[in-house]
């Protein structure tokens, strides 16, 4: 069960990195792209998961955040 969870987390991280592409994106944009078949009421939980991945990537040098006013966008690093 733990191995399955870790494999899923690694897969989701790869999807997030790919979804960042070459343009900065907000967490909401990433959720809309990655969770197209997820019920709207679950988007909040999905956003928390995506944000956790982005913070991890930022700590590892794989992503950077750009904040303008109240809008934060994430960009792939490297």
Structural write-up:
By secondary structure, the chain is an alpha+beta fold. The chain has three helices and two strands, in the order αααββ. It has a two-stranded antiparallel sheet. A hairpin with a 2-residue loop joins β1 and β2. α2 (27-34) packs across α3 (43-59). The chain is globular and about 40 Å long. The chain starts with a helix and ends with a strand.
Compact description:
With 78 residues, the protein is α+β, with helices and mostly antiparallel strands. The chain has three helices and two strands; from the N terminus they run H-H-H-E-E. 15% of the residues are buried.
What is the topology?
Layout lengths: L1 H19 L6 H8 L8 H17 L3 E6 L2 E6 L2
Antiparallel strand pairs: 1-2
Helix pairs in contact: 2-3
Taking all residues together, what is the mean pLDDT?
Answer: 95
**Oligomer category:** single chain
Strand adjacency order, main sheet: 1-2
Radius of gyration: 13 Å
The helix count comes to 3
Helical proportion? 55-70%
DSSP strand count: 2
Helices and strands, in N-to-C order?
Answer: HHHEE
Largest sheet: 2 strands, antiparallel
Low-confidence stretches: none
Q: How far is the N terminus from the C terminus?
A: 33 Å
Identify the overall geometry. Answer: globular
Query: Which range does the strand content fall in?
Result: 15-25%
What structural class do you assign from the helix and strand content? Answer: alpha+beta
């Amino acid at each position: 069960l733990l191995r399955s969870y870790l494999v899923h987390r690694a897969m989701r991280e790869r999807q997030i990195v790919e979804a960042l592409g070459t343009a900065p994106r907000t967490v909401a944009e990433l959720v809309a792209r990655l969770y197209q078949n997820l019920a709207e009421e679950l988007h909040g939980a999905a956003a928390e998961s995506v944000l956790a991945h982005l913070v991890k990537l930022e700590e590892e040098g794989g992503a950077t955040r750009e904040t303008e006013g109240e809008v934060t966008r994430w960009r792939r690093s490297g």
